[in-house]
Design brief:
Blueprint: H1 5-17, E1 37-40, E2 55-58, H2 60-66, E3 71-74, E4 79-82, H3 91-94, E5 95-97, E6 104-106, H4 109-118
Antiparallel strand pairs: 1-2, 3-4, 5-6
Length: 127
């Protein structure tokens, strides 16, 4: 999303709605060296819109790894499943923190393919 007061207002709404956390890895924006990006859940390159229900707050790492992918292959079920969508799904139903509280584990097909695509197993819990 670029430029204009309208887009700045949307960005503010998206950031507040996400409680200033990446909606994928739950990293807090306050400890990042750069502001988080507004991610299109359905990328504009494949027909997604700038509507609020298609936007999520993402740290740079998650945004870059997600790129324009919307699905992945789950090795356990041998099925193609959608990536996690924070507008339609609840994070805690698809992910949990490891016993030491330092890495994210996908516990459903959606969680597993999202962890693989975004390399969430490499994310450390901070804050």
């Amino acid at each position: 999303m670029k430029g204009g007061l309208f887009h700045l207002c949307k960005r503010s709404i998206v950031r507040k709605r996400a409680n200033y956390l990446c909606e994928y890895c739950h990293s807090p924006e306050r400890i990042s060296t750069t502001r988080f990006t507004v991610d299109h859940l359905i990328p504009k390159s494949i027909g997604g819109s700038d509507e609020l229900n298609n936007l999520a707050l993402a740290c740079r790492r998650c945004n870059e790894r997600r790129y324009n992918f919307v699905a992945g292959y789950d090795l356990e079920t041998k099925a193609v499943v959608p990536l996690f969508n924070p507008r339609q799904q609840i994070w805690s139903e698809h992910f949990l923190w490891s016993a030491n509280g330092r890495t994210i584990i996908g516990v459903t097909p959606i969680g597993r393919v999202t962890c693989k695509r975004l390399d969430l197993r490499g994310c450390l819990k901070s804050g």
